[in-house]
Amino acid sequence: MSKDDTSWIFWATVITVAAVYIFLKSVFPYLAMVIADKPNPLPMPSMALLMYMFLTILGAVVYISFDDRRLRRFLRPLLVLLIGRGAKGLRAGRTVFLIALPLLMAVSMFRVLVPSAEPPLGLRIQHPTMPGKYERKVNPFRNPGSELIKQFLENSPGNMSKEEARAALVANYIEEGTILYQKNCRPCHGTKADGTGPMARGFRLRPANFTDPGTIATVVEAYALWRVREGGIGLPNDASPWDSSMPRWMEDLSDLDIWKIILAEYHIAGMEPRLPEKHEERE
Ligand code: HEC
Question: Which CATH number is 132-282's, of 1.10.760.10, 1.10.10.10, 1.10.3370.10, 3.40.50.300?
Answer without folding.
Answer: 1.10.760.10
